Amino acid sequence: xxxxxxxxxxxxxxxxxxxxxAGHRVTLYEKNxxxxxxxxxxxANGFTFDMGPTIITKPEVIERLFLAxxxxxxxxxxxxxxDPQWRAFFADGSHIDxxxxxxxxNSELQRFAPQEVANYLRFLSYSHRMNSIAEQxxxxxxxxxxxxxxxxxxxxxxxxxLALQMDPFTTMHGAIRKHFRDxxxxxxxxxxxxxxxxxxxxxxxxxxxxxxxxxGLGCWYPMGGTGEIAGALSRLCNExxxxxxxxxxxxxxxxxxxxxxxxxxxxGQLERFDAVIANSDIVHTLARLLDAPExxxxxxxxxxxLEPACSGIVLYLGCNRTWPQLQHHNFFFSADSDAE
Length: 340
Ligand SMILES: Cc1cc2nc3c(=O)[nH]c(=O)nc-3n(C[C@H](O)[C@H](O)[C@H](O)COP(=O)(O)OP(=O)(O)OC[C@H]3O[C@@H](n4cnc5c(N)ncnc54)[C@H](O)[C@@H]3O)c2cc1C
Fold this sequence. Notes:
Layout: E1 2-6, H1 10-21, E2 25-29, E3 41-44, E4 47-50, E5 56-57, H2 59-68, E6 79-81, E7 86-89, E8 95-98, H3 102-112, H4 117-137, H5 146-152, H6 157-165, H7 172-179, H8 183-194, H9 209-216, E9 219-222, H10 227-239, E10 243-245, E11 250-256, E12 259-265, E13 270-272, E14 275-278, H11 282-289, H12 293-301, E15 330-332
Parallel strand pairs: 1-2, 1-14, 2-10, 7-15
Antiparallel strand pairs: 3-4, 5-9, 6-9, 7-8, 11-12, 12-13
Helix pairs in contact: 1-10, 4-9, 7-8
The structure holds flavin-adenine dinucleotide (FAD).
């Protein structure tokens, strides 16, 4: 098939690589002059900034992509495990380092909050259990809602048991507060879901799995900066003959009789395709790029779930000295976690 991929972010690059490897003729359109999307790099005055992600968890996702197309990610990327993973500072002036190593984490907790050592181990085991359920049930499948999840996997005794083990009536906040008495540790573990754009008061307990994904499975960094990952995927695209068109904004996905016929670029040029994959934001894609009645109906039905996460402000500071009290990654927690 002739397939267009709109957007050269990580998802678009990964889709293009898999499709080209499977033998399709793939054209990837990116509106920017570079690939990688939010995984962007900025170089200025001798400094290099990772503009987006700096914490890489589950390198297995990268590994699986490379293996699926007959390559080894080690030949393209040098991923190193970070231990300590980051340093957390609290409003009372205290700080704790998060270690993957149980032995080092134990010593750190003995210093920071000795009464919480056993609670930490209990929480890690709970988080590990949540991760195992997710792996078995939905981690590797796309789903947009609980309803999708239920209909995607046939309900049998095994999935009913898994659903119950998910602690379905507890929020992440509730699950964490059940484990920790120390407010600072509770705040730290709740933050795992905040930095993926959700609220611990709303997120289900199953998302406690993030703690295991980071602490248990490790936190990684590609030497040279996270942009190296986008660079490695771009290399794969080139190796599999993906036709990459930079500086090309797709205005519209053209349809006829309810079927995709092609894409219209900002220059007004229509190119024909059998299928289109959009790496662009879903609301933008459905509302602007694809103005079909089915897209509108979907948007109306899912309005609540498709609400955007909150925005953020990022400062990129080039400094002329080092601060020994800082780690490579540092989090500064506010005094009021609920308000935060
Ligand atoms: C400041 C910041 C920090 C982050 N930190 C982390 C972190 O530490 N760890 C982590 O795992 N994640 C982190 N993330 C999230 C991570 O960056 C994103 O989840 C991921 O990069 C999204 O990839 P994507 O391919 O889904 O989308 P995007 O990167 O948004 O890619 C979409 C691409 O489509 C292009 N596009 C859109 N519309 C069109 C169109 N009509 N025509 C042509 N091109 C179009 C865009 O230009 C873009 O290149 C962070 C994000 C930010 C912003």
